[in-house]
Every structure is written in C-alpha cells, then in structure tokens.
Amino acid sequence: MQRIFLDGAEANKLNAIPFKNDKELQNLLVSNPALVSTESEPELAVVLNEFKLKNIGIADILLVDSSGLPVIVEAKLNKNFVSSRDIVGQVFDYARALSKFSIEEFNDVTGGKLKSSLEKLTSNAEEFKAVWKNCESNLGLAKTRIVYAVDEAAEDLKEIIQFINDHTDFEVRLVSYMKYQKDSFSVIMTNMIILGSEDEIDLKSLPVTKPSEEKTDIEDILTVESSEPEVKIDFKNLPVVEPSKPEVKIDIKDLPPVESSEPTEPISPTPTQEKSAPPTFKTTIETYKIIADDDFEITREEWNCGIIQVENWSPNIIYVFTYYEDDSGYGIEIRLDDDDVKNLDKTLLSFVPVAEELFPLAQVIWDSSWSNYRGKLIVKYTIDAPPEMLAKTMKELIQFTFKAINSEIKR
Question: Does domain 279-410 match CATH 3.90.930?
Fold first, then answer.
C-alpha cells in the first residue's frame, strides 16, 4: 500500500523506512507516549525510560495515565522476538511484581518520579490525592496495561495476546508502528491491532435499529408462513373418546411371581450428574498449556486435575493441578504416590520455606499423610484465585524444584 503526501498540488510518495533496532522504536514512544493510547483515553506521562523489576528484568518504558493506571511498554521489532510464549510469562511477571508494591514503595523504586508524573497530570492537590489513591488501588489489584509495540506482528503473537485478553483479567495491547519519510518530513503510522480492553467496540458507532410503528405480538413472531389455509383447533371442543372395553384395574400385589430361568440383571441406578470443576480451573489448564516449557507439558487431564509426568522420572512422582471438591480452593502439588519415591519426602519438605517466600498469596502445606505417608507438597490458593496466577505458580514451582528432585532421582 502506497502512502502519498500532498504538498499543495504536488503529490509526493512517502517511502517506508524500517526501524534500525528496538531502541529506536523505544525512543520514539518515550518522546511520544500518546502513540500507545487512543484519543479517547486519559493522558499519559513517562515515569521511567527503562524500569528495573527485581528478579524479572528491565521493562522498556513505564508510564502512568491521568486516572492512575500504570502502563508498561515493551518495544520489540518482529525479528527480535525469541518466542511468543515468553510474552505470556512476561505479562504474569510484570503483574505479579507490581502487585507486591505499596504505592509508597512503587514511588520509591521510581526515584519519586511516579509522584512527579502524577502531579504533572493533575491540576490541583485534591485531584492528585484522588488519582494517587486510584493508582494505589490498581497496584493492589495487579491492574495494569501492558503494551507490546512492534513494527509488525506475527499471527501467533496476535493469537496469544488475544487469548490473554479473552481468558484473563489482564489488559494487553498490541500496537504496530511504521515510519514513512520524504526528505526531512516523517510520518508515523499507528495500527492498534489488539486494544485489550472492554472498550474495543464503541457502542455509539453501532447502527441504531428503529422500532417498527406497528405493534408486534409474540404470536406474530411464532407464525409460520404456509400456502395452506390456517386451521385452528379448539381443544376444549374435541369429542371425548370412550374406551371400547371396560377399564380393568390390576393390583400388582395380587399377581403371582414369575419364575425365570435367566438370571435377573440388576437395575442400574439413575446416573448422577457428571462432576465438573469451575470454569476457572479449565482456564487455568489452558493458560498453563501456553506458558509451559516443552518438557513439562500436561500429560493427562481429569475433571478435577491436570497431571504433569516428567520424562525419565518414576510415574509415581508427579506435578498436579488440583481442584478440591469441597470448593476450598485449588492446589499446585508435587505428589509421591508409591514407595519407590518415598525417599524424596525430605527433599520436598525442604522446598516449603522457599515456596512460602515465592508464593506469599498461597498457603504452603506439607501433607505427610498423603498416599500411606509418602507425602505431597501443596501450594494452595483460595477458590477466587485468578487462572493466570495458578498457571504461573506451577511453572515457577517446577523451575525451582526440578533440578533438586532430578539430582536425588539419579543418585
């Protein structure tokens, strides 16, 4: 598609100029933060160009808008994407990291720039106080917007980001940018590929259906057009059909027993309603499938669990997603199911303090009575835990336990 710049009566073709590297795109967005938002959204201010998050890495740009919503921008050229799967983990990492900050801590790690940015976006002390409080609430709820800024977007990238928006509470935006130039004149074309919010559809722009002036009756809706004349039947006037023989009443108790040479098959009980876990559990499993490393994919699913059997390990030690039938919550577990792995109980027990540190929102339990006292480690969340948190917990649990367990197995 050609881009033409009209200078008076003269038409000049604009040439597409690729970005040299990620940094050039990043600098463009730092200088022009409005490029990551729509015209109807609150004004944005740059808090930091490159924001370091402990144990996670460096986010390219940290912004905040005038409503107090934190916005993290990752600028990446398509050729530099390592794996679209990494994006899912990155989204969860950012949200988890921000949720651990109080508003004061968040301001401290930005060197006070969060406060100064919000002061620029507000006109008086009362407005600032309200936005500051709203920002604090957003942090506590892990509510943030994450923007992936690219020069072009691969299909799998679009699919994964759309999946995150459809199946989690996160707002992830995908925006592409193209630079055009003619002499010293430059144009930046922005394409909001995925907005990642509930406001993608503007109801005001939808066509308005005007009601018909004629009265609509439910009978009109149910009328079926037919070439045959309408026949109306009044059931009240139908003749009563008398039985041709007198009614015979049979008392079952008076019937003689029937002898049979064939064995009587038991009557099957009425089947009970099929058990099912909450939709959140299914979403958790599907989310994990996206972020799972190749060697730790789910190998078996049942209605209340998803099992990860590690290759070259005994089938009696497994990682398990569990939904507890009493609705008490969800478990991310490592189970020891037979005596051949009983010797791993001390190794699993040693993981408890680390797990408590890694997963502060969960209850970490060592259940020594599991499977005839072989034991299992449980990271338990309440029933309202978000699927993305559960999926990320399993991935992190595997990452910090696999090496130690594998070493014990090989001894």
Answer: no
